[in-house]
């Protein structure tokens, strides 16, 4: 009998949690601004990059793009969208420090990336063009 009660409680809790998740997802989707395909940041072709920049692109796509680039037009990036202008505005040393130490929302990579890999990533960020502004803004 106790097993049946525990199973029913678990099942009802799972249903409630699933319904809340669906409602939260629907609310988030309705609040996020509509994006068009022109808002997605185009990544430069490896053919146009130096070997250092190509290595930086690989690292950026593997480690950074999940948060710093919108994956689809309907998504909003979790972190700031990174490009060459942002890098120039903040300064290379500040960006290197951010990559090393991280922040409350970003992990630091001081133990997982070498200084050379961070340099390659920063070198690659210089090649990224700023995203086009959203239509209707």
Question: Would you kindly provide a written description of the structure presented here, covering whatever features stand out?
Answer:
The structure is a single chain. This protein has 137 residues and is mainly α. It folds into two domains: 1-31; 38-125, Orthogonal Bundle (Cytochrome Bc1 Complex, Chain D, domain 2). Helix content is 55%, strand content 0%. The longest helix is centred in the N-terminal third of the chain and has 30 residues, at 2-31. The protein starts with a helix and ends in a 12-residue tail after the last helix. Residues 16-38 have low confidence and may be disordered.
Label this structure with key terms.
single chain; 137 residues; mainly alpha; Cytochrome Bc1 Complex, Chain D, domain 2; 2 domains; 5 helices; 55% helix; globular
Short description:
Helix content is 55%, strand content 0%.
User: What top-tier CATH class of the largest domain fits best?
Assistant: Mainly Alpha
Reading the helices and strands in chain order gives HHHHH
- The structure class reads mainly alpha
Low-confidence stretches: 16-38
Major sheet description: none
What name does CATH use for the topology of the largest domain? Cytochrome Bc1 Complex, Chain D, domain 2
What is the number of strand segments?
0
What is the CA-based Rg, rounded? 20 Å
Mean pLDDT across residues: 77
Number of domains: 2
Strand coverage percent: under 5%
CATH architectural designation of the largest domain = Orthogonal Bundle
Q: Output the number of helix runs.
A: 5
- The percentage helix is 55-70%
């Amino acid at each position: 009998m106790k097993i049946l009660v525990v199973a029913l409680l678990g099942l009802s809790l799972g249903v409630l949690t699933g319904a809340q998740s669906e409602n939260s997802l629907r609310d988030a989707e309705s609040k996020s601004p509509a994006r068009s395909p022109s808002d997605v940041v185009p990544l430069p072709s490896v053919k146009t990059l130096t070997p250092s920049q190509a290595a930086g692109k690989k690292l950026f796509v593997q480690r950074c793009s999940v948060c710093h680039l919108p994956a689809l037009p309907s998504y909003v990036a979790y972190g700031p969208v990174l490009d060459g202008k942002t890098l120039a505005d903040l300064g290379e040393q500040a960006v290197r420090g951010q990559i090393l130490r991280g922040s409350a929302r970003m992990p630091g990579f001081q133990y997982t990336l070498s200084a050379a890999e961070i340099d390659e990533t920063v070198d690659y960020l210089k090649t990224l063009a700023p995203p086009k502004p959203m239509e209707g803004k």
